[in-house]
Amino acid sequence: MKTLELKKASKALADYATHLGSESIVITSNKRPVAVLVSLQGTEREALPLSLNPAFMKIIRRARAEVKRGEVYSLKQVKQEMLAATGGPNKPLRRSARKAGRP
Q1: What are the residue ranges spanned by the domains of the chain?
Q2: Cα dihedral sign for 102, 64, 27, 48?
Q3: How far apart are CA 49 and CA 40, in angstroms?
Q4: Do residues 50 and 56 make contact, with C-beta atoms less than 8 angstroms apart?
């Protein structure tokens, strides 16, 4: 990831974006990051706002901590639990009743 001091930015934004490729540029002011020019090459547009969402990032951190602690399920275990919950491989899961006041 490249960095660019805002005061030293000599090109137009379009020039930086054109030559970005698959990298990102962190724009700094007084050596502190203030913005990022992010390439969306090979990325879905919706992924960026999701990755910046604090609640989503909290979920990711929690999941990574669980993996570190070895609190993981194999695909086989998940399939077994799903089959047990439905009563067999061809029965769909039932949705739980929605609570009043929730969509």
Answers
A1: 1-45, 53-87
A2: negative
A3: 12
A4: yes
- Name the CATH topology of 1-45: YefM-like fold (3.40.1620)
Three-state DSSP at 33 gives strand
| Six-digit token string for 85 | 């919950």
pTM for the predicted model, two decimal places? 0.48
**Which strands sit side by side in the sheet containing 2-5, from one edge to the other?**
2-5, 24-29, 32-38
pLDDT tens track for 32-66:
999 988 888 777 878 888 888 999 999 999 999 99
| 27 within 8 A of 4, measured Cβ to Cβ | yes
